[in-house]
Specification:
Number of helices: 11
Oligomer: single chain
Number of strands: 0
Shape: globular
CATH topology: Heme Oxygenase, Chain A
C-alpha cells in the first residue's frame, strides 16, 4: 500500500510539472478577478475610461516595455533550445512593432514623460533582478504573466463589451484578443511547462513565487495608472 501511494505521488508530481502553468495559474485566480473588476478594466470595457488615465497608462507602458524587451532577450539567451531563444528574441522585436503602433495611436505629446512611476520602476527592477540572477526557468516564470494576463484581459473585454465596437480603445483590445497574440501566449506557456519538467524542487518553488509576484505587479501597474501614480517626494 505504501508503494502504491508513493507511485501515485510520483505520477501526481509529474502531472503538476507537465501542467505547471495551468496549476500555478489557479493560485492567481483571485488576482485575475481583481484585475477584471478594477475600474481601469471596467471603464475600458464600457468605453468610459478617462483619456488622461489612458494617456498616463500608455506612457508608463512604453517605459515598462522598453525594459521588458531586455528581460525577454536575457531569458532567450539562457534558453537551451535555439527555437526557444528565437521565440523570446522575436517576442522582443514584436513588442517594438506592435506596441510602437499602439503608442503612436494613443500616446499624445502631452502624456509623454521619461519618468517611470514607482510601480513601473518596481516592476522593471524586479524583473531585471530575476532574469539576470536566477535560473532560466525562474526567469521564464517571471516574464510569463505579462503574456498570459494581457491575453485573458483582452479576451474578457472583447467578450463582455458592447457589441457596436465604438470603443475608442478598440485597437488596444483587439491586439491582446488577437489570434496572433494567442499563438505567442500558447508558445510561451509550452516553454514554461517544458522547463518545469526538469526544474529542481527549489526552482519549482521559485517559479511559483515569481509568477505570483509578477501577477501581483500586473494588478499594481493598472492600479497605478488609474491613480496616475506619482513620486510622493
Amino acid at each position: 500500500m505504501l508503494g502504491y501511494d508513493n507511485q501515485n505521488s510520483i505520477h501526481y508530481k509529474e502531472y503538476i510539472m507537465q501542467n505547471w502553468y495551468e496549476e500555478t495559474r489557479k493560485k492567481t485566480d483571485h488576482i485575475f478577478h481583481a484585475i477584471i473588476k478594477h475600474d481601469f478594466v471596467v471603464d475600458m470595457m464600457q468605453a468610459t475610461l478617462d483619456k488622461d488615465i489612458f494617456g498616463f497608462y500608455v506612457n508608463q507602458d512604453s517605459l515598462y516595455l522598453s525594459e521588458y524587451k531586455k528581460s525577454l532577450v536575457t531569458v532567450g539567451t539562457k534558453c537551451h533550445r535555439p527555437e526557444e531563444t528565437q521565440f523570446f528574441y522575436e517576442s522582443a522585436t514584436g513588442i517594438i512593432h506592435v506596441e510602437d503602433a499602439l503608442h503612436k495611436e494613443f500616446l499624445e505629446d502631452k502624456y509623454r514623460s521619461s519618468t517611470p512611476s514607482p510601480t513601473c520602476e518596481l516592476y522593471n527592477s524586479y524583473l531585471a533582478r530575476i532574469v539576470n540572477h536566477a535560473s532560466v526557468e525562474v526567469g521564464i516564470a517571471a516574464v510569463l504573466p505579462c503574456f498570459t494576463i494581457y491575453k485573458e484581459v483582452g479576451d474578457y473585454i472583447l467578450a463582455n463589451q458592447k457589441k457596436d465596437r465604438s470603443n475608442p480603445y478598440q485597437s488596444w483590445i483587439d491586439t491582446y484578443a488577437s489570434e496572433e497574440f494567442a499563438t505567442a501566449v500558447e508558445q510561451v506557456v509550452t516553454i514554461a511547462n517544458r522547463y518545469a519538467l526538469t526544474a529542481s524542487p527549489e526552482n519549482l518553488a521559485k517559479m511559483e513565487e515569481v509568477f505570483i509576484k509578477t501577477s501581483q505587479l500586473e494588478w499594481m501597474f493598472w492600479d497605478s495608472a488609474y491613480k496616475q501614480e506619482a513620486w510622493k517626494i
